[in-house]
């Protein structure tokens, strides 16, 4: 019984951590979008794509659901052009 309880608490902790990271990404984007150069945000999302691709996918999907389209495509075009 104790092992099952610990496993549930561990999963809850991971879910909570992922939610906090996603909220942090969204808040950073909102706060910095009007104040910083957009290349900073693109670089930040590029780093997130390399380290936490699933979190970045949640970010893209949440923006698309809220009606903000084109961020994913703009990032991909920027990243492809910077590689060349």
User: Any idea what the radius of gyration is?
Assistant: 16 Å
For the termini, the CA-CA separation is 56 Å
Average pLDDT figure: 77
Unreliable stretches (pLDDT < 50, length at least 5) are none
Helix and strand sequence: HHHH
Shape: globular
In total, the number of strands is 0
In helices, the fraction of residues equals over 70%
Q: Count the domains.
A: 1
Profile the largest sheet.
none
The DSSP helix count reads 4
Specify the structural class.
mainly alpha
Q: Beta-strand percentage? A: under 5%
Account of the 3D structure:
This is CEBOS protein. This protein has 84 residues and is an all-alpha fold. The protein has one domain. It is built from four helices and no strands. It is globular. The chain starts with a helix and ends with a helix. The model has no long low-confidence stretch (mean pLDDT 77).
Topology of helices and strands:
Blueprint: H1 2-33, H2 38-51, H3 53-65, H4 71-83
Helix pairs in contact: 1-3, 2-3
InterPro entries: CEBPZOS
Protein name: CEBOS protein
Can you tag this structure with a few keywords?
globular, 84 residues, 4 helices, mainly alpha
């Amino acid at each position: 019984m104790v092992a099952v309880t610990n496993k549930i608490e561990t999963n809850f902790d991971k879910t909570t951590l992922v939610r906090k990271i996603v909220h942090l990404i969204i808040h950073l984007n909102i706060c910095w979008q009007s104040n910083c150069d957009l290349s900073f945000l693109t670089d930040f999302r590029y780093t997130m794509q390399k380290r936490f691709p699933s979190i970045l996918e949640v970010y893209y999907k949440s923006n698309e659901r809220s009606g903000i389209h084109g961020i994913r495509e703009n990032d991909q075009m920027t990243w492809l052009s910077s590689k060349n």
